[in-house]
Amino acid sequence: MIYWKALVRHQQMKDDEIKILIKGNKVITLRELFEGKKETRKEMAKLPFTEKIGQLIELQKVASSWGNRKDVIVWKIS
């Protein structure tokens, strides 16, 4: 019930009106959040392929250690 009220209220607000608290106790608008994500994606797209694979392996390591899971494969690249 509470979720539905929040959803209805959200649909009535503009992206510039919705505020979000992020890391470092900084407040930004929803529009600023999406613009930042778009810029981050553009920067990551420009990275060399080897760097992208390195980041993927780091994410695999985090996933395998999270909850001490044994069913997550971490690539070994030499």
Helix content: 55-70%
Structural class of the secondary structure composition? Answer: mainly alpha
Summarize the main sheet.
2 strands, antiparallel
Uncertain segments are 1-5
Provide a count of the helices.
Answer: 3
Rg measurement, Å: 19 Å
Architecture overview:
This protein has three helices and two strands. With 78 residues, it is mainly alpha-helical. The chain folds into two domains: 8-46, no CATH class; 48-78, no CATH class. The protein has a two-stranded antiparallel sheet. Strand 1 and strand 2 form a beta hairpin.
Structure summary:
The chain has helices at 2-12, 30-45, 49-65; strands spanning 19-22, 26-29. It is built from three helices and two strands, in the order αββαα.
Write the layout of secondary structure elements.
Elements: H1 2-12, E1 19-22, E2 26-29, H2 30-45, H3 49-65
Antiparallel strand pairs: 1-2
Which key phrases capture this entry?
single chain, 78 residues, mainly alpha, two-stranded antiparallel ribbon, 3 helices, 2 strands, 56% helix, 10% strand, disordered N terminus
